[in-house]
Amino acid sequence: MGAQQAVDEARPVSARVQRKRGKRIQEIVTVAAELFGERGYDAVNLEDVAERLDVTKGSLYYYFSSKEELGTAAIQTLGDEWTDRLEKLLERADGSPAQRLRALIHEHVTIAVRDYPAALRVFLVPRNWPAAQRERIKELRTRHNQLFRDLIEEGIAAGEFTVTGVDTVLQCLHASMSQAPAWCAELSGRAQRAAIDELTDTLMMLVGVHPD
Amino acid sequence: MGAQQAVDEARPVSARVQRKRGKRIQEIVTVAAELFGERGYDAVNLEDVAERLDVTKGSLYYYFSSKEELGTAAIQTLGDEWTDRLEKLLERADGSPAQRLRALIHEHVTIAVRDYPAALRVFLVPRNWPAAQRERIKELRTRHNQLFRDLIEEGIAAGEFTVTGVDTVLQCLHASMSQAPAWCAELSGRAQRAAIDELTDTLMMLVGVHPD
DNA sequence: ACGAATTTTGACTTTTTAGTCAAGAGTTGA
DNA sequence: TCAACTCTTGACTAAAAAGTCAAAATTCGT
Known about the structure:
The structure is a homodimer. By secondary structure, chain A is an all-alpha fold.
């Protein structure tokens, strides 16, 4: 029956089939997010997504009722995963605000550059997303920013950081991290790790903390 | 006869008519660049460009033989203008490397944020440009980067700057400036000038120079 | 003011891509 | 093995946007 029931929630099926379906959806979302990240929303066509998955376009519409819905799913899933990692890192991090901020920046850059090469750029560089998704991306960014903001303000209070304006620092942090995946695209292994470390050091300069 | 002779070079016409034609082309290019900057290459349709100019699409094809050619013209014209302003500033700038770098950053941000609100973002955020134009954008960026690089290296030699890696600093500078127009979009007048100043101060931190 | 050169128009074709769907292939549990 | 359920296909439609062009409108030089 196709699109109508693409995202029905309470559909009675066996647990096993349901699991399989969920896995397939994840596969699709992952591939779609990669492409959205590489090219931006507009420039991705579903035929390409399908091709990467070795299926045809029609099959995508069995799981998602529109391109927009697929976009939303990509943003949702990957965004949650990302936020989780940052929050978990902060839970186990200790040391001075500078040490914790360095760890947070490092984790953030690592995620963007190494772990999700193109996929998560989706969130960082605003492309031509439909309004609904832009809203979601903005929410996510606010959540991430809050993690950084709290830490930076703690560091200022402790007299460790020299910051002219917290918001401006956040913008620069965000902008730099968002373009990092593009710079580091060709690098691999050792060189990439070095680039991530150097970027982390450089970004710490924004709050007045020099390396060493 | 339309498209065929859209960009013929040696067409025999009177000087006056030739001038008029050139002016019209500039008008079109300016409007097109604005739209490309706002939405990215893909998302701009020529009907919209034409509408902003109060003409119809067919008319654009009298001057440009394709959308791609219009894109190239936009990049070329605006890029030259921008580079000119930066080079002129450096000619008349004096003082320490820090003072000159601050002036250069300030000028660059001012151009991007205030003088060409959306237009020149074309160069800064990589969108889905066809390969040929991507090449041009890269060239332009290299030229701009060189201006910054020379100054930063001078400042390092003079012992004024603390920099872990020049390339990484350039990337962060570039990334931050490229997203600045988006942050400052709503601001106007006094608030915008303040934002530009604060961004300049914050970016100077990247080379280890604190305000005051 | 008039003929020639230039510019604009709007209806046209073509291409691309989102979205639909009936029919068939594959899976599952009994 | 069979019937019901699930998934995939490929040919289809629809809409949007690039690109074309003959004819009409405008502007120019004399």
